[in-house]
Amino acid sequence: MQEIVIKARKKAFSLFSGNRYSNKHGEGLNFEELREYQIGDNVKRIDYNITAKKQKPYVKVFSEEKELNIIIVGILDYKTYFGSNMLKSEKILEIIATLGFSGIKSDDRVSVELYSKDKFFIKPTKNIKSIHLLSKFNSDIINTKLNYKEILDNLIRHKKNSVLIIVSDFFYEYDFRKLGAKFDTYTVIVRDKLEESPEKLNGFTIIDPLTNKSTIANFDNSYKSKILANDSKLIKNFKISNIKYIKFYTDDDISKLRRLFG
Predict the structure, then answer these.
(1) 55 Ramachandran zone, left/alpha/beta (phi>0; psi -120 to 50)
(2) Of 185, 226, 241, 255, which has the most beta carbons under 10 Å away?
(3) Alpha helix segments (H runs only) across 87-214
(4) pTM for the full model?
């Protein structure tokens, strides 16, 4: 895991150079100065104490906060313990680490939440060393089943207008409209190409990540059809929810992330 984090940091410093994750800025405002009232100014920003002293109306001038609050969420269960090039779980962690380093490099505040056998959180930070804590994540995900709805419902607790990035394989159903309405939301769908062409595995011995038992692969067209149906419903859900998305395969170069924020 430490190698993945170090590799991600190297990539991050060239990946998003000069770019930001969102064109939106937070609604928070920083006080900048006082000046005389001008026609068209918001009367709610009149400073009545100064107005009384100067005997003419003065307003408070604010500048919009440029700093983003970025929340990166990774969901890793037994289904992510699969991969022909690298495990999906490893790719998810590489993507999260890269996004974390890139966000801090852009002088934004980044927090990370990983949901797996154990929960792993990195509190909001602008310290790039904090992202290295990902190397301590326990990536033992065999037999791990998760309550996706509970995890995703709980994300609504975060501050409005944050940038929310969810990285997962998304082999589950969920209504994303509330998250899409509250946050500037991005999703990274992490898959392995063999999942969409499982017949290539037929005859090979594979390990069931839920039971940790070996079996001979025997996939038919119904498995492939289920994946296509899941993804069709998922993409429709993202579009309705105004959520930006990208599908990322385990053998994709991390530079593909640029497409998500382009």
Answers:
(1) left
(2) 185
(3) 88-105, 148-154, 177-182, 193-196
(4) 0.82
